């Protein structure tokens, strides 16, 4: 049993050591795709209903800012941040708040059905915009927890005495739902629900005093809402990610030499060695060299060439790792086409 385990571990170690890992920075297309011709956009708030609100929870009645008012302040903070961020990211020439006084807003705390295209087109026409970023839904929900602890306080005679302190912790959950209406293409380009939480703590000599001591809840909700609005604005921009790639460093002494060149950042020199090894008589070495040439091509930004090399590594030489890498490259090529379209101005 010991001998079998030792052999397995040796094989596992040897297999792992046949490759090294590198990291690449890859630009991904924006999550929300709008045609480059879309330059003027509007920001709409559908969350503030003019209808009578439902009864407030007992907890919300305790706070200085009631539920609907807190929702209104949070939604406005998120929308302000969204508009500011969209204006600053240079993707659009004009970003404006849009209003539709004739539009029936959504009920308190519900994610509504999309706007009809008649309504979306009318809003766009009246405000001279080509697309609408709409906050469709915004809601806060609070849960309160109580605990007690004994603290020592100085009494009238200067002697410390134990006092029971009440602690109130309020967990406020925030949810926001967004849609992007492309009025010209008549497409909903995005539908996105996001959320976060805010913790507020107060203390006092009894539960009521502890709740009254809660401070900063409104400001914290507004701050988190602003962060949510800024984050949503980023969905219209391409973004960078880090990806890992394995490349072969074992096969013969030439692979060892190429490994050292790669470790010093001399990828061009490593590529020269791998290119020569693609003609090796040993199909295992030639397959690994073809695979590594795919790595070099991806580093150089030539995805189509990388696909050709990696396809040959799998089809002609049976290099099993190449099939997964081929699919990664094909997905990258498709994403790159979307990215180029988004960046065409």
Automatic annotation (TrEMBL):
Gene3D superfamilies: Tetratricopeptide repeat domain. Residues 1-18 form the signal peptide. PROSITE patterns: PROKAR_LIPOPROTEIN (PS51257). It holds the Pfam family DUF6340. The keyword Hydrolase does not apply. The keyword Cell inner membrane does not apply. Keywords: Signal. InterPro entries: DUF6340, TPR-like_helical_dom_sf. This is Tetratricopeptide repeat protein. The lineage of its organism: Bacteria, Pseudomonadati, Balneolota, Balneolia, Balneolales.
């Amino acid at each position: 049993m010991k001998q079998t385990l030792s052999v397995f571990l040796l094989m596992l170690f040897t297999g792992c050591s046949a490759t090294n890992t590198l990291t690449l920075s890859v630009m991904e297309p924006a999550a929300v795709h709008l045609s480059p011709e879309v330059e003027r956009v509007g920001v709409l708030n559908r969350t503030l209903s003019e209808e009578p609100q439902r009864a407030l929870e007992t907890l919300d009645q305790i706070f200085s800012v009631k539920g609907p008012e807190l929702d209104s302040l949070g939604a406005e903070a998120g929308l302000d941040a969204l508009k500011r961020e969209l204006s600053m990211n240079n993707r659009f020439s004009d970003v404006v708040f849009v209003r539709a006084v004739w539009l029936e807003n959504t009920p308190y705390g519900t994610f509504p059905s999309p706007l009809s295209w008649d309504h979306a087109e009318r809003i766009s026409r009246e405000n001279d915009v080509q697309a609408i970023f709409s906050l469709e839904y915004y809601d806060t929900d609070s849960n309160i927890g109580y605990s007690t602890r004994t603290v020592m306080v100085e009494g009238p005679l200067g002697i410390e005495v134990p006092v029971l302190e009440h602690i109130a912790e309020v967990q406020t959950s925030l949810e926001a739902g967004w849609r992007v209406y492309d009025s010209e293409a008549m497409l909903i380009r995005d539908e996105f629900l996001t959320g976060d939480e805010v913790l507020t703590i107060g203390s006092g000599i009894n539960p009521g005093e502890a709740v009254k001591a809660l401070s900063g809840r409104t400001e914290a909700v507004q701050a988190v809402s602003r962060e949510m609005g800024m984050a949503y604005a980023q969905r219209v921009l391409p973004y960078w990610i880090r990806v890992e790639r394995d490349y072969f460093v074992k096969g013969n002494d030439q692979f060892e030499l190429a490994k050292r060149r790669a470790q010093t950042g001399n990828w061009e020199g490593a590529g020269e060695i791998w290119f020569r090894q693609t003609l090796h008589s040993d199909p295992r070495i030639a397959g690994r060299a073809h695979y590594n040439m795919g790595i070099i091509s991806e580093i150089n930004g030539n995805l189509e060439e990388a696909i050709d090399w990696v396809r040959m590594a799998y089809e002609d030489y049976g290099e099993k790792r190449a099939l997964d890498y081929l699919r990664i490259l094909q997905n990258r090529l498709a994403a790159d086409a979307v990215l180029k379209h988004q960046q065409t101005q």
